Amino acid sequence: MALSACGTAPTSSSTQSAAAAVLEKADAVDGTVDKTVSKCTGCGLGMPGDAAHSVEHEGYEMHFCSETCKSNFESDPEAGIKKLGSVVEKTH
Fold it and tell me: Residues 54, 63: contact at Cβ < 8 Å?
């Protein structure tokens, strides 16, 4: 039996939902909803990514501008999703 209380920290499912919302918006940035995030989030500059530097995350193929950006995302995907949210906001 699981108990929860008001004011508890967000659950992993709510974190996943927030990440899914960011990924969905980022997918649409290029005008095509195809489960591919084409903007690099590694450096936060919103540069075009390259399929040669890609990783799959939560059902999306994410393209990065360099192997360094890809590696940084893989080491801390949560921080990468936060950067992606900032990049998406800049493009709208």
Answer: yes
- Asked whether the whole model's pTM tops 0.85, one would answer no
- Beta-bridge mates of residue 39: 48
Question: CA–CA distance from 7 to each of 3, 10, 11, 13, 15 (Å)?
Answer: 13, 9, 11, 16, 15
Whether the CB-CB separation of 80 and 41 falls below 8 Å is answered with: yes
User: In the structure encoding, which two tokens stand for residue 72, read together?
Assistant: 């940084």
Residue listed under structure tokens 């360094």? 68
Residue predicted with more confidence, 14 or 35: 35
20: its two tokens: 């899914």
Give the tokens for residue 29. Answer: 């940035």
Kindly report the length of the chain. Answer: 92
**Residue in 39, 70, 33, 35 with CA at minimum distance from that of residue 54:** 70
